[in-house]
From TrEMBL:
GO (cellular component) term, any one: cytoplasm
Protein name from the UniProt record: Inositol-1-monophosphatase
PANTHER family in alphabetical order: INOSITOL MONOPHOSPHATASE, INOSITOL-1-MONOPHOSPHATASE-RELATED
Subcellular location per the Swiss-Prot or TrEMBL entry: Cytoplasm
Enzyme kind, highest EC tier: hydrolase
Biological source species: Caenorhabditis angaria
Amino acid sequence: FQPIHEDEQKFVDFATILVQKAGTLVRNAFEQTESKVDTKLSDTDLVTETDQAVEKLLIDGLSKEFPDHRFIGEESVAGGAKIEWTDAPTWIIDPIDGTTNFVHRIPMIAICVGLAIKKQLRAGIVYNPITRELYSAQVGNGAFKNGFPIKASKNESLKKAILCQSLGLHNRVYFGDAWLDVAQSNMRNEALAGVRGHRSFGSAAINMVMVAQGSCDGYVEYGIHAWDVAAPAVIVLEAGGCVIDPTGAPFNVMSRKVLAASTPVLAKDLSSILTHVTFEPEAI
Ligand code: 2AM
Ligand code: CA
Ligand code: CA
Ligand code: CA
């Protein structure tokens, strides 16, 4: 492990404790049926008081300890602020990934905190406060679940693969001159329809840590944002998996799309079969 900032370890250790504190808040709110739900852009785009409280807890806590750090948080940039990258340590935060699961009390949710320094992703923390699974990774240091090393599968065969995609409205993109549901389009492809199984956990981060721990073999999604994938991408890579752009190009955290796979062979096979759609890069 080669830090690129002398206090990098201190940053990550502090954030890990804070994420667990935030987890207690989420766990306590999880069983309450009364939690107030608002919609953002559409009926499927939910936000709760807990999303906002968790983001505040994380940003307040980190900025108090590290006043010169910067933040990219889902619920803070939603107001229309443009994301600007600087060399300063930057925390990329999704307070609850899987808000729909949270609202429906489906226990697959994750607090995601990624750290970039000098515009490079350096660390990722993905915590499911309900199952108390804490995934973490730092570049060059391997990936862990509750302190135990995790590894992506060695699967190179699509036929033996479990694939994750997101089904549902938000995965539709305007393509050509009509709406295209990317996951449905992929499923109509014979090679993808014939894999061992399909899963959709309702959280980008959970889908990705499933690849990181070798439970699933591939994950593809369009329309995601930096805060959905920054932290879990580090975890997949450090677990020995691949994270690329679905076209096969190098992964870009701002490009609104991601392909995670257990092996380079599987990543390449998936990339050659998938429905490809173009997105404007992150413009928030
Ligand atoms: P979120 O819960 O943080 O919003 C669900 O399939 C995955 O897609 C989740 O990671 C969810 O993140 C993300 N997502 C992004 N935009 C969404 C939307 N408009 N509706 C539902 N999920 C969305
Ligand atoms: Ca959201
Ligand atoms: Ca998210
Ligand atoms: Ca979220």
